[in-house]
């Protein structure tokens, strides 16, 4: 993953007093407009990693064009931000059919081309 080494260098060189993370869910696997293939857990890793720097963080949602996956992603990221584990199973509610047939937070990633790696970037630049 490119995120960790890039953010590590940014934090080391710039030493920000605060961070604003705009967490666009269009990078999730299966997004109708995004071309990346991140899992909900992989997406949440950004929030978890940034918390380790112990600076104030403003977390913002944004992006994402497959709404049921946006809801999954932000629920999971909110749990990370708050330090609360949540169950993978989405409890029965009036919107259960919307999240079916699996009713889970963590969905399998698709088999689309992985554009998240250093190797992919080398082939496109």
Radius of gyration: 16 Å
Terminus-to-terminus distance: 17 Å
Mean pLDDT: 88
Number of distinct beta strands: 2
Can you tell me the overall shape?
globular
Please, how many helices? 5
**Share of residues in helices:** 40-55%
How many structural units, i.e. domains?
1
Q: What is the N-to-C succession of helices and strands?
A: HEHEHHH
Biggest sheet character: 2 strands, parallel
In percent, how much strand structure appears in the residues? 5-15%
Structural category is mainly alpha
User: Assembly state here?
Assistant: single chain
The strand line-up of the biggest sheet is 1-2
Spans of 5+ residues with little confidence (pLDDT < 50)? none
Task: Sum up the structure in keywords.
single chain, two-stranded parallel sheet, 2 strands, 10% strand, globular
Write the topology of this structure.
Layout: H1 3-14, E1 19-24, H2 40-51, E2 57-62, H3 67-82, H4 96-99, H5 118-124
Helix pairs in contact: 2-3
Textual characterization of the structure:
With 125 residues, the chain is mainly alpha-helical. It has one domain (3-124). 41% of the residues lie in helices and 10% in strands. The chain has a two-stranded parallel sheet. Strand 1 (19-24), helix 2 and strand 2 (57-62) form a beta-alpha-beta unit. Helix 2 (40-51) packs parallel to helix 3. The longest helix is centred in the middle third of the chain and has 16 residues, at 67-82. 17% of the residues are buried. The mean pLDDT is 88.
Structure, briefly:
The protein has 125 residues and is mainly α. It is built from 5 helices and 2 strands.
